[in-house]
Amino acid sequence: MYTLRQNRWMALLIGVLLVCFSAVCLLLQNEQSQKVQYSNEMDKLVAAKQTTDSFGSVNTAHKKLQKQSQISAKNSLQLVDGKKLNSWKIVQYPVVIKQLPASNSGQVLHQLKPKAAQASQAGKVKPAINYNPKLNSPKILYFSRTRLLSPSDKSQSTKQYTVSADDVLLLRKIVMAEAEGEPYQGKVAVANVVLNRLRSANFPDTIKGVIFQKFQFSPVANGRFKRVHPNQDSIHAVNEALNGIKSVSDDTYYFLSLTLADDLTVHNTRTYAKTIGHHTFYK
């Protein structure tokens, strides 16, 4: 420090040297940053050029492929010559149809026709039903506490019911409406159900009341009951049921078609009795 105080010019010289050194450092740093920036820009330019070259090569290859495909298509078309097509010949082979002798064919047809007729008639013929022509509707029904009695057992009856012509007609119509396409035994069973309800204290005490009881017979609700006309099967089925012939037991009060019924309460709550045709009967 003493030396610096004595020689002031040396202090100035040292200061100048420090300033120059700092300036040189700054210049070197600036030059280095410019070199780095220049190097980055050159790298970008090189990458861009390579990308352009690659796209150009792709386009060139694509054009070459198009030209080759066009050339191959032309060559394939040239391979097909109209003259060669005309030179092709279609070979026709004779078809031989063997015919039966007239006598044999006539015999075959003669044998087939009766068989076809028999098959068609077999599909239309219904099983024969033995009606009793002398069986008519009784004037009075006889009931015990648990069953409908035949007229010959009327001495055991505890209840009687006088049958009117209207009652018989109503029975025939409800059987026709409910069981038109059902087996004959199914028709008798429908009449049995109506008469079982007539005997029971849980249902109305007249045939008309039983048939027209609300929500019991669907043909009454939908109008089919009024439109039907009883056929011979329905008439005889009612006559047999009124005379004590039964297809179901005396404690059978319900029936329904499981495929057509909307309400299956009976099926879910009642005891199964029997199935006849499409109808299932319940106690």
Automatic annotation (TrEMBL):
Q: Which Pfam families match?
A: Hydrolase_2
Q: Which InterPro entries match?
A: Cell_wall_hydrolase_SleB (IPR011105), SleB_dom1 (IPR042047)
Q: Which GO terms describe its molecular function?
A: hydrolase activity
Residue span(s) of domain Cell wall hydrolase SleB: 181-282
Name of the protein this chain belongs to: Cell wall hydrolase SleB domain-containing protein
Q: What species is given as this protein's source?
A: Paenibacillus pini JCM 16418
